[in-house]
Amino acid sequence: MPEVKADIEVAESGELVKEQSQQKVQSAKKNVARRTKSVVSSEKPAKTVKSVTTSSSVKPIDVNDPIYYLNREINWIDFDRKVLEQAKDALVPILERLKFLSIFYNNLDEFFMVRVANVWKQVQSGAEPTGADKLAPRRQFSEIGRRVREVCEEAEEVWKKQILPALDKKAIRIVKYSDLSEKKRQVLDAFYDSDIYPVLTPQVIDSGHPFPLVSNLSINFIMELVNANNPKDIRHARLKCPGNLPRFLYLPHGKEEIHSDLSFDPNYAEVDVVLIEDLVEERMHRLFPGFEVKAVGQFRVTRNTDVEIEEDEADDLLAAVRDYVDQRRFGDIIRVEMGRGIPVRLSDLLIEYLEIKPHQIYKQKMPLAFSAFMSLGCIDRPKLQYKPDRTKLVKELDMEADCFAAIKKHDIMLYHPYDRFQGVLNFIEQAARDPKVVAIKQTLYRCGSDSPVIRSLLEARRRGKQVTAVVELKARFDEERNINWAEELERAGVNVVYGFVGLKIHAKLCLVVRRETDGIHRYVHVATGNYNASSAKIYTDLGLLTDDEDICSDVTDLFNVMTGCGRVDQYRKILVSPNTLRPSLMKLIDEEIQLHQSHGNGHIILKCNQLVDGGIIAELYRASMAGVKVECLVRGICCLRPNVPGLSENITVRSIVGRYLEHARVYWFHHNGDEKMFIGSADMMNRNLNGRIEVLAPIDSPKIRKNIMDRILQLQLADTEQSWQMNADGTYTRLRKAKAIKRIDSQCATNHTKSLY
Q: Would residue 56 be called left, alpha or beta, if left means φ above 0 and alpha means ψ between -120 and 50 degrees?
């Protein structure tokens, strides 16, 4: 992919992360006290962090020094690169590889809409660096562009040289209109005339018709038209490819009957797949009678969706979120993708019409909006997909069982997707139908388009129970869906609360209040993942069902805080952000340091999605420098530099990227044998610790703690198949070995056949 020169300052070497490391770290090897030169301003290429002098003759290491922190946005690209590696993996079934490639591009879309948009906003406003790495926004933006173009070139090679040929061998062919037989072209022509043509709306661009507003992430065409009777009459037009029609048109390669809607049929032995935009482009001349389509190009706009919600000024939070969603559709342009050899004269026109800079252009050799290929990866071809995994329904949570009696006997720990999420749904449904249940309180963040949880809450209300739903309207990209659910619940008489101004409610909680023979009894479900039956099939998450009096009292208090105007500064057992979670974790790390100094057995294991918060990282550095062993399992962004001698030589960071999306959060402290373990919704990011309501719940059962340790944490730390080890410079090394003595896949279902309790 040809580089597009940015109109902003670009690092001479382009190797930003390495640039961050070299000069300061190299001087630190000689004398830490002499480190005076800014890492960010260094112009020479850098080398990986290798050592830091810590002798008594030099100044002690400052754990807050920006050199010891990786940039959040740049590190995210390294995470998405690991997703791309799954698309390359020959051991992964071909349709699953296609899914991973689509996930890679979907991740990029969201990255640009939110994170890159935020960086660009900082560039434009002249904002100072905000992360612990102190990397200037302008330098961040430059390096993001370079790295994204680099990784997209890799993705294009994967598509062209690996996935396309592999699909073809499996009788799934992505073909052009011109590659088809005359008979099949006639079928496509008929479908175009009947289903596509009536929907299309060409828009000419002239003095009376300015360039139209282009919606976010839509596939568009720009055309050059020449009057057939007057060659000097040259015009331009834009056409939006309809997003409400099927993207993929399926034609049997053999003699099977073709469906009128060109949908997929699993009975097709071989199938040709035509993209709808290819058919639209092929038949485009029909839209402009009397004109010749002289040139055409496809483009796609990515807009800033990180629009601020004016919560403080809003009288009605619901109305404010509605306005926010409307504004987001047409936020500032952040990226413009141009595809398939678009002529230079048309790309120049787009730059003019869209009022963009050259650095915002990303040229692509493969189909635009590739995230839509997820649906192609889901076609019915079982031999080309993962085998259905063995999952189990926890017997105590069967609809025929008494789940409340079971929870009274002992805590129940669920590990999804190996334990079916149906168990959680059954718990809520039993609560809805049980005449002894008097109240249900539930948090809802992302519950999906067809939510069994919502249905159970509605059923509970119909049966006269007190039902409270704390709906987070600001769940990014789920705002509209949550608004609709909130309104439906309100119409049914459910007490709906929208949360706080300035705080997202991200905690995953369900509280059931039951009147039993001996009085009121409470049951709680606290989890790491959303109440979403669909995502629970592909996300690994933990959920605790308990009647622990202290935890139930804590959750009751927290619901009252979320629905009322009170404040609780201290809870009995649970850790709650933004008030108690951070100081509690810092205290636990500090205690581990002190206990290690006395007993020499300090050990911390953190499993989370993101490790970004500078305060937490600094405390982990202190623990490492004190000799505490720190093992981190971080799926996504990690701003900590592991394995730096004198600083983090006792810290390792591993990442599991495989069939399932690792989503569970587990925080474990050895505590001189008096183990402390917590699970919950919070990642180690500033937003989780300071800007959200999050909950971590203790795991008090020694049996459950041991099982989580043995069958999740230690298993993932020993993984040989899906594990990546992080290097000090932020890069990752895959740990898979061709001749491993013992192959360990931590996501293999056979590892999780037994319950965790």
A: alpha
CA–CA distance, 356 with 209 (Å, rounded to integer): 20
Q: What distance in Å separates the CA atoms of residue 488 and residue 480, rounded to the nearest whole number?
A: 13
The architecture of the domain spanning 575-752 is 2-Layer Sandwich (3.30)
Structure tokens at 664: 């569970």
**pLDDT 10s digits, 145-170:** 999 999 999 999 999 999 999 999 99
User: Quick one: tokens of 631?
Assistant: 């093992």
**CATH assignment, 171-356:** 3.30.1840.10
Element (H, E) at 86: helix 72-88
pLDDT of residue 58: 58
Separation of alpha carbons 17 and 143, rounded Å:
9
Per 3-state DSSP, the chain is made up of helix, strand and coil in percentages (nearest 5) of 40, 20, 40
Say whether 575-752 and 395-563 share the same fold.
yes
Which H, E and C letters describe 522-581, residue by residue?
EEEEEECCCCCCCHHHCEEEEEEEECCHHHHHHHHHHHHHHHCCCCCCCCCCCEEECCCH
Q: Residue 87: name the closest of 18, 158, 154 by CA.
A: 158
As a dihedral over the C-alpha atoms of residue 35, residue 40, residue 41, residue 42, rounded to 10 degrees, the angle is 70
pLDDT at 10: 33
Distance CA 635, CA 656 (A): 6
Q: What pLDDT shows up at residue 462? A: 97
Q: What is the three-class DSSP state of 205? A: strand
Gap between the Cα atoms of 200 and 56, Å rounded: 74
Q: Using the structure block, give the residue that is written with the tokens 């969201």.
A: 110
Is cis: bond before 578, omega within 30 of 0? yes
What would the two tokens of residue 305 be?
A: 């969706």
Handedness of CA 129, 135, 141, 142 (dihedral sign): positive
Residues tagged active-site: 506
Which tokens go with 195? 């289903």
590 C-beta neighbours (distance < 10 Å), count: 14
pLDDT, residue 222, reads 97
Closest CA to 543 of 757, 400, 706: 757
The single-letter DSSP state of residue 331 is: -
395-563: which CATH architecture? 2-Layer Sandwich (3.30)
Structure tokens at 667: 């925080």
Gyration radius of the chain's alpha carbons: 28
Residues of the chain where predicted confidence (pLDDT) is lower than 50 = 1-56, 313-314
Angle between helix 614-625 and 581-599 (nearest 10):
10
Residues 6+ apart with CB under 8 A from 396: 403, 406, 407, 412
What is the Cα–Cα distance from 739 to 185, expressed in whole angstroms?
Answer: 50
* Distance separating alpha carbons of residues 623 and 648, to the nearest angstrom: 9
Domain residue ranges in the chain: 171-356, 395-563, 575-752
- What pLDDT, on the 0 to 100 scale, is given for residue 180? 93
How far is it, in rounded angstroms, from Cα 146 to Cα 734? 23
